[in-house]
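Weekly structure sync, notes
Attendees: PL (lead), two postdocs, one rotation student
Agenda item 3: pending single-chain targets
PL asked that the sequence for the first pending target be pasted directly into the notes so everyone works from the same version. It is reproduced below exactly as submitted, 121 residues in total.
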Amino acid sequence: MGVVVRSLLIGVYAGLLVGCDGGMLGQKSDDSTEESDSGVVTYVDVKPILDSKCGGACHSATGVHRIDLESYGNARLSGHAILRVIKGSMPPASSGITLSEDEKKKLELWGESGFLEKEEQ
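Predicted structure, written out during the meeting:
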């Protein structure tokens, strides 16, 4: 693995482990865990969670952290790290943002579905 790619991945994982203070307080997202009829959860299904609970002031192109979760490509690269940190350190308590159990489950199902962007027809 190249030095640049390795450095990028280390930065992605390290950034997910660092809390973001403020910026998205009081934002809500769709808490439902409804997935498609096939049981597959895709990026389309989890994007509202990532946008409202992770993006904005923290994990976006203009956020305080360099990990931009606003695009599928970036979220896909960070998928395994997202699954690890939602079990503990993210979102940080100091942000006032929480993930419901349904939101955590939907993110976990996205991982179990292979971090797909959308269902293949």
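Discussion points:
- The first helix runs from residue 3 to 17.
- The chain has one domain: 3-112.
Action: rotation student to compare against the earlier draft before next sync.
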